[in-house]
Amino acid sequence: MEEMTPRIKQLNETSSQYAESLRAVRLEIEKVIVGQEYIIEKLLIALISGGHVLIEGVPGLAKTLMVETLSDCLDSDFVRLQFTPDLLPADIIGTKIYDHINSSFNTVKGPIFTNFILADEINRAPPKVQSALLEAMQEKQVSIQGETHKLHSPFMVLATQNPIEAEGTYKLPEAQVDRFMFKLLIHYPTKDNEIEIIERFTEGITPGTSRMLTSQQIIELQKFNREIYTDYKIKHYAAELVDASRNPQLYGLQVDGHIEYGASPRASLWLILAAKAHAMMHGRGYVKPEDIRSIAYEVLRHRILLTYEAEAEQISSDEIITMILEKVQVP
Length: 331
Fold this sequence. Notes:
Blueprint: H1 4-30, H2 37-49, E1 53-56, H3 63-72, E2 74-75, E3 78-82, H4 90-93, E4 94-99, E5 104-109, E6 116-120, H5 127-130, H6 134-139, E7 141-144, E8 147-150, E9 156-161, H7 174-177, E10 182-185, H8 191-202, E11 213-214, H9 215-225, H10 232-246, E12 259-261, H11 265-281, H12 289-300, E13 305-306, H13 308-312, H14 317-327
Parallel strand pairs: 1-9, 1-10, 2-11, 3-6, 6-9
Antiparallel strand pairs: 4-5, 7-8, 12-13
Helix pairs in contact: 1-2, 2-11, 10-11, 11-12, 12-14
């Protein structure tokens, strides 16, 4: 530990500098978005970690506006894709078009070749279109008729979905859901926040935002995030949280067969990366158990698959996660 002290001190100093920059971005977003500080923080954590985000909430809760505002605060390219039942994979990744003049095929790249993708109402497009994002999200590349093309960096997919409508929607495949680092749930604003929203949007108040971070600065943040110190005990704690979702009986969890499948190994990776980002946002160069616990719900809720019995009893994955956090010993 004596050897680590100078390193951690240096990491703390760098983290404090980055924390100030991220705080400025958060304040800039809050000029436009009212009462969603918790969600804004999680979006920034995902950005630092290099992950993708699935945002779920009923209509009218500013999901789209939040993502657009985030991109406005970053000096990066942004595109909004409205997912509809008639959308085709080529509409996203691109295709090859025959050029009669040169008698050759030219590659026309789709809108996915940008930094930030807003996949609006992603569950309205059929599975073929949803799966077109799989390679891009995981490998940061796409294949267009046999040719592989690297995507721009940084690259982030922020998808929204409406949970209350079943007609005209297609449930996301589990393989794709697992590729999202976070699943964020947006709830109704408080009464005071709603009054502020009313005043802003009915009285012509349109606060503007400034670009706070460049693409290169975002890449630097993402690289530094992996340098944040994580003790073995913290890694072991994250692994135990995930293992408890797979083998609940070993941890004394009384779930009565409510878990169909536990979290995948991606959960462990994102728990650590997100915890590092949370530590950085609070000016620390090392991870504490509180960092893990602060992002556990967002990382695990879409990776713990419940049985029909659990759904019939209206038991949510968040309730299972609460039980896991209570049972697994904190280092």
